[in-house]
UniProtKB/TrEMBL annotation:
Descriptive protein name: Nodule protein Dg93-like protein
Taxon lineage: Eukaryota, Viridiplantae, Streptophyta, Embryophyta, Tracheophyta
Keywords: Membrane, Transmembrane, Transmembrane helix
Transmembrane segments: 26-46, 58-77
Entry-linked PANTHER family: EARLY NODULIN-93
Organism: Potamogeton distinctus (Roundleaf pondweed)
Amino acid sequence: MTSVSRSAMDQQMALAKRCSHEGIKAGVKAAVVATVASAIPTLASVRMLPWARTNLNPTAQALIVSTAAGMAYFIVADKTILATARKNSFGRSV
């Protein structure tokens, strides 16, 4: 392996790490927003609606909130990583 190909590979690894890091940051932000956005109506409905009070125990409430946060994290992180990789790919080919 020549030093030129090693340098190119190191540059590609640096770009991949940056893409992943940006995706993680965006995913965490989305998860925080989704947590708040799902926790407020879930907790309010348990306090106000008799059906929810009867049927949604604390485990069910936590499951609702954590599912929304997890979905938001993975969707946003995936889309961000793909968009950043696509941008980097087009940027190098021009």
